[in-house]
Each structure stands twice: as structure tokens, then as C-alpha cells.
Amino acid sequence: MKPEKETTRGLAQVEGYLLLNAEVEEARRHARRFTDALPWLTTAQREDVESVYVADRMDICRETLTRIAGRAVELRAEYTARYDQLRARCVAVSVLTVGAVGGACAALTLISR
């Protein structure tokens, strides 16, 4: 693998790791805020509720990211297909234009003789 690709991949992995940790910390903050509203919980119950809350939030996050990644792949395929069509049309129009101009030049050359 090329060093640039390895670097890019490594940076993407680090970014993903940092984003995941930030999401986990955010879920923990929300869980603590939630359990703070339930003052009758024992310490063990509070920890259990927070743990379940964080796990649920991570499941939702994983599902959302999976759905977004799938949609990104679909969009890439759609845009690639559209780009290929547009490129083919542009090439066809360019070839026809060059042919028409070349034919007009040839016709003018024959007429002017």
C-alpha cells in the first residue's frame, strides 16, 4: 500500500476512535443527568441504569452510522453513474462538433477551389 494511503487510512482510524470516545463520553454525561433526576436510586441501581443507557445509546449510534454509511455508498454509486453518463455525452458532443467543424472546413476547401 502507498504511504499516502496508509497515512490517510491511519488518520481516518484515529478520527473514528476519537469520535467514538466523544460519543461515549456524551452518552455517559446524558446518563448521569438522567440518573440525577432519580434521587431514590441506590448507587448500584444508578450504575446499572447508566450502563444500560450508555449501551442503548451506543446501539442507536451504531445503527445510525451503519445506515448513513450505506446511504453514502448508494449515493456514490448514483453519482458515479451520472458522472459516467455526463462524461459520455460530453465526449459524444465533442466528437460530433469536431466532425462537423472538420466537415465544414473540408466543404469550404472544396467549394473555394
Please describe what this structure looks like.
The mean pLDDT is 93. By secondary structure, the protein is mainly α. It has one domain (3-85). It is built from two helices and no strands. Helices cover 92% and strands 0% of the residues.
Shape: rod-shaped
* Number of strand segments: 0
Overall mean pLDDT score? 93
Strand content: under 5%
Domains, number: 1
Main pleated-sheet profile: none
Percentage of residues in helical conformation: over 70%
Total of helices: 2
Based on helices, strands and strand pairing, what is the structural class? mainly alpha
Give Rg in angstroms.
30 Å
Poorly predicted regions are none
SSE run: HH
Quote the distance from N terminus to C terminus.
62 Å
Topology, element by element:
Layout: H1 3-36, H2 43-112
Entry summary:
The chain has 113 residues and is mostly helical.
Any key phrases for this structure?
mainly alpha, 113 residues, 2 helices, single chain
